[in-house]
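2024-03-11 09:14:02 DEBUG pipeline.ingest accepted 1 chain
2024-03-11 09:14:02 DEBUG pipeline.ingest length=122
2024-03-11 09:14:03 DEBUG pipeline.predict start
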Amino acid sequence: MNNVTQDFIRPGHEIAPIPDYPHAPSDWTPSDAIELAATQDLTLTADHWRVIQALQDFYARQEDPAINMRELHDALDETFHHEGGIRYLYTLFPNGPVAQGCLLAGLTPPSGAQDQGFGSAM
């Protein structure tokens, strides 16, 4: 087990290995996500980490600093289509895959992320 996750394992929960994050914000670490997730009663699984990585990759590919909420929502839905798309992502991120996912990924949620119709129940 790596040192990043060692201090954040809750009894009875298995932590997935943390992959590399080449598009992460410079001031973000996986430990940040683990700590924040714990405050929200989430234990990050391999699928949580895939969403975090997908969000960071999406943000890195955007030339316009204003992220288009609809494009991000559709990209997540398509990326996780085989698992059930956005509906599945709500099982991972009960407060919204876009809003909660962005916060865990160290990203500023796009305008409209708090709107329940776009991926947030916050």
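2024-03-11 09:14:41 DEBUG pipeline.report The chain is about 45% helix and 0% strand.
2024-03-11 09:14:41 DEBUG pipeline.predict end
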